TrEMBL record:
InterPro entries: RepC_C, RepC_N, WH_DNA-bd_sf. It holds the Pfam family RP-C_C. Residues 26-170 form the Plasmid replication protein C N-terminal domain. Residues 310-409 form the Plasmid replication protein C C-terminal domain. This is Replication protein C N-terminal domain-containing protein. Residues 245-265 are annotated as: Disordered. The lineage of its organism: Bacteria, Pseudomonadati, Pseudomonadota, Alphaproteobacteria, Rhodobacterales. It comes from Paracoccus homiensis. SUPFAM superfamilies: Winged helix' DNA-binding domain.
Length: 417
């Protein structure tokens, strides 16, 4: 006995319901935009790539106005053989694809008793089933977009762990070349999936791997700290703090916030100045420190001091790693990478900041942005645009991160006073 897959209800009942007799696309959505959405979500509907592409091509054979009409439904009345020719497929393959689309609830096939199609008889391939599901398909598309963004951030976090672990193992090789524990960590890292495999992982598997990579990196850093201690080498957390310059004269510059910017995309032109103030701000003249800081220099700020300057949300992440005085710079990068999507900053804005500024300055930029986002009178409506503005200022040599950290410290002190 041969069992056939059930046809999606939208292709049989919902479309024929009088309420959905002629469903129309909402708002300004047009045929081609909708077809692209269908193609993107097709894997979640059980539709293969070939069938999804065929849907786009079939939709293009209909009148665009029918997709937004309240009195007509888009359809194709050409014979199956003609449709196969237009798709460049064999008739059996075309029949299989249209059957696949019908099972997924994206089209409805109406044929006469002899299998023929005609405009007069009202037979052919109808797209009302898909249009009736527009809200569902748009919600699914939004969900997939969020998942893609999440996957991009997760892959970036794995890249960070891999990079730090590589440098850690290199340092271990220098001071303890025959360390068996380092060899075990190196062997475990060698078994990590390739970057290509990461793209094929589902979110749960990818997140689990990223956690494992983070734990292995921390194990490597723990081992390095132990070996450096026994060999007399410098420990990151024992480096002296940068000289406290908060007692020097400084001016706080907070330019007015554009209250009309809420809700606009993060890539729009920003109206909130980066934390070093506006073009006429005297705070820029407090010191001449460059924004191009080396990792060793930034480490001198000290973990406790950086922790105290971070936002409560970032501090919550950091507390799960270690006591503030034992935090490593890697922990701050790790926490910043998790705050980035929560702040609504796109992967592109974050990656651009890292490429332009380097990971150290990009991390400090997130820490500063995050800490300032809820300051009274300094509401940041568009964190993504704010970060892009900071990146542009860095390119021009106008971003002074250390001075911004000093400003944060002073404002915190004044607030607690």
């Amino acid at each position: 006995m041969v069992f056939q897959k059930a046809v999606h209800p939208a292709a049989t009942r919902a479309y024929r319901d009088p309420e959905y007799r002629h469903p129309a696309l909402p708002g300004n959505m047009q045929r081609d935009n909708f077809a692209i959405i269908v193609e993107r979500v097709s894997p979640r509907l059980g539709v293969g790539l070939a069938a999804a592409h065929a849907f786009v091509r079939l939709a293009a054979m209909t009148r665009p106005s029918d997709w937004t009409s309240q009195v007509r439904t888009p359809f194709i009345y050409a014979e199956a053989g003609e449709v196969a020719k237009m798709l460049g497929l064999s008739q059996p393959r075309t029949r299989a694809i249209t059957a696949e689309l019908e099972r997924a609830g994206l089209i409805e096939r109406r044929t006469a008793a002899n299998g023929s199609r005609s405009r007069a008889a009202g037979t052919g391939l109808y797209f009302g089933a898909a249009i009736a599901r527009v809200d569902e398909l748009m919600a699914l598309d939004d969900q997939l977009t969020e998942e893609r963004q999440r996957a991009i951030f997760l892959r970036g976090q794995r890249s960070t762990a891999k990079r730090y672990l590589k440098h850690t193992l290199e340092r271990l090789s220098e001071i303890s070349p025959y360390c068996s524990e380092a060899a075990a960590i190196r062997q475990a890292a060698a078994a990590w999936p390739s970057a290509d495999r990461l793209h094929r992982m589902d979110l749960a598997t990818l997140a689990a791997h990223v956690d494992e990579a983070d734990q292995l990196c921390r194990a490597g850093l723990d081992l390095l700290e132990k070996r450096e201690k026994t060999s007399g080498g410098p420990l990151e957390n024992e480096r002296p703090y940068i000289q406290d310059t908060t007692k020097e004269s400084s001016v706080s510059c907070n330019e007015p916030v554009d209250m009309q910017s809420a809700g606009k995309p993060a890539q729009d032109k920003i109206h909130v100045m980066p934390p070093d103030g506006g073009p006429n701000c005297n705070e820029k003249n407090v010191d001449a420190a460059s924004g191009a800081f080396k990792s060793e220099f930034i480490a001198r700020l000290g973990p406790q001091r950086l922790f105290n300057l971070a936002s409560p949300e970032m501090q919550l992440y950091l507390c799960g790693r270690a006591e503030p005085e034992y935090l490593r710079f890697y922990d701050f990068v790790w926490a910043a990478e998790r705050r980035v999507p929560e702040l609504g900053i796109s992967p592109d804005a974050w990656n651009t900041a890292r490429e332009v500024m380097g990971e150290d300055s990009a991390m400090l930029s997130i820490l500063i942005l995050d800490a300032r986002k809820s300051e009274p009178g300094n509401i940041i409506f568009k964190p993504g645009g704010y970060l892009r503005a900071m990146t542009d200022r860095y390119r021009r040599g106008e971003l002074h991160l250390i001075r911004s950290l000093i400003g944060l410290s002073e404002r915190q002190r004044a607030g607690h006073g």
